[in-house]
Specification:
This protein has helices at 14-28, 59-91, 105-114, 142-148, 174-185, 205-219, 233-243, 258-264, 267-274, and strands spanning 4-7, 32-38, 96-102, 121-125, 153-156, 165-169, 193-199, 223-229, 248-252, 279-282. Helix 7 (233-243) runs parallel beside helix 9 (267-274). Strand 4, helix 4 (142-148) and strand 5 (153-156) form a beta-alpha-beta unit. The protein contains nine helices and ten strands. The longest helix is centred in the N-terminal third of the chain and has 33 residues, at 59-91.
Length: 283
């Protein structure tokens, strides 16, 4: 079976990421690959400092700077290995392997996919180790991973809570239909209470597509309720997640063009910021 790719940086989200991973692995029976990236910024300025010094610098200074750069690189490697060992211990699962790479998280995921190892799913924290939690900003890698990944991405919440009911945010687009098909055919969400919610007007194409999605889930034996509610999608979905005590939000990613998102923002990004539950995202 394809593995679950778990991205970890040792941040405050790490314990929650591991708890979400244990839940996911128990539901799917999949092996786990724990991935830690040593990014360029973890070296002093991301480069060899000795290469930035002019020809007039003394050989002794160049030697010290080179040694300092190598020392920081070594510390980054040791820290990364410690993060991976800690992750394996916290996961306490029978089939876990660890990968340490240098460079970019997105580029590494793309390389794994190009090598024929896309994985079953990717798990990543909502925020990384360098994010100020008080600002509400998302991690710098999160949007790039969601945009580039070819498999579903589970965005872990700050804390893990048992998952008993999930909400599919439905907009009639290909990615939300893919989420419905996954819920109807895969073991991950089997046996859980399902709420299928769309924001829009009755007697529209969205209403008809919503009914078809509900029938697909019912035919698969899913315990589902569906509602088409008035209002803006991000506001409606966020309110329903809180009102219905939802444990997991399932949705499609970035349904509009990138240019439109720069002007109007994105429902996906808004919900990731405002909903304090894990979010399973399909593209």
């Amino acid at each position: 079976m394809a593995p679950i790719l778990v991205c970890t940086d040792g941040s405050l989200y790490a314990p929650s990421i591991y708890a979400h991973t244990r839940w996911l692995a128990s539901r799917c029976g999949a092996p786990v690959r724990l991935l830690h990236i040593i990014e360029h910024a973890e070296y002093i300025g991301g480069s060899d400092l000795s290469g930035n010094i002019g020809f007039d610098a003394s050989a002794e200074l160049l030697e010290e700077l080179t040694g300092l750069s190598e020392s920081h690189a070594r510390i980054a490697r040791i820290r990364g290995k410690a993060i991976l060992e800690d992750g394996k211990c916290r996961l306490n699962l029978p089939n876990v392997s660890a990968i340490q790479r240098h460079g970019s998280l997105v580029e590494t995921i793309e390389e794994l996919e190009e090598s024929g190892e896309p994985g079953l799913m990717i798990i990543i924290g909502k925020r990384g180790e360098h994010v100020d939690f008080a600002t509400g900003h998302l991690g710098s890698n999160l949007e790039r991973v969601i945009r580039s990944a070819t498999v579903p991405v589970l965005v872990a919440a700050r804390e893990f809570h048992p998952i008993e009911r999930f909400l599919i945010a439905f907009d009639g687009g290909p990615s939300s239909i893919k989420a419905v098909e996954h819920a109807a055919t895969q073991p991950l969400l089997a046996g859980l209470e399902c709420h299928l919610i769309a924001a829009g007007k009755p007697n529209t194409e969205l209403a008809r597509t919503l009914q078809q999605a509900c029938e697909t889930l019912q035919a698969a034996g899913v315990n589902v309720s569906s509602d088409l509610l008035p209002g803006e999608p991000d506001e409606v979905i966020a309110a329903e997640v809180a009102h219905r005590h939802i444990n997991l939000l399932v949705m499609g990613a970035y349904g509009h063009s990138r240019i439109r998102q720069l002007i109007l923002g994105s429902t996906t990004t808004s919900l990731l910021r405002t909903c304090h539950v894990p979010v399973l995202i399909f593209r």
